[in-house]
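Q: I have 205 residues here and want to know how they pack in 3D. Can you give me a structure?
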Amino acid sequence: MSESSLQTAELHLLVNRIKLGDGPARNEFVRCVASRIERLAHNMLRQFSNVRRWEETGDVFQQVLMNVLKSIESGANEPKSVREFYAYVATCIRNTLLDLARHYRGVRAPELHAVNETQSSPKQNPIDNATATGDETLQRWCAFHEAVERLPLMEREVVGLKFYHGWTNQAIGEVFGVSEKMVRKHWQSACMKLNDLLGGELPVL
């Protein structure tokens, strides 16, 4: 079974076998999901430049993969679908990166880690500004990321794809099998909920 061919029924079977302590099932599961988890970790790490100074994709990937496996083995996470599973993985990556952002808050990297200003770099995420401008700003952005986790599943996934990955409404609609109008509806609803959750201090999205 390859990563691209993993289906919900097969995921459920592997999860159930892993919970029973089946070592080969654990290895098969890792083989099926590892490359996609690593790509997600790589893409999301690009948004946290202060963390990137200290951590590499492989470090984040290993930590997230171990946490995901532990949650499955303990029965704490039983995804209903492949899509829901990867949404959970994205949440794990985001929380890991937020913890690392807090850990490295205010820590200055030595010059050998400094980014060459003549090279192009990914669009900066506001979390980077937070690490540079003090605890209050960092806390505000951490509150935003945590509020995203409280959204309904569809809205959370739309926010994740638009905000964290920069996807267009059209691309999101194609993945979910809905119209661009429906994607905009979910986005607008998510923004209103986030605004309420953050007491009217919704960052510019």
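Q: Anything worth noting?
A: The chain is about 65% helix and 0% strand. The longest helix spans residues 23-45.
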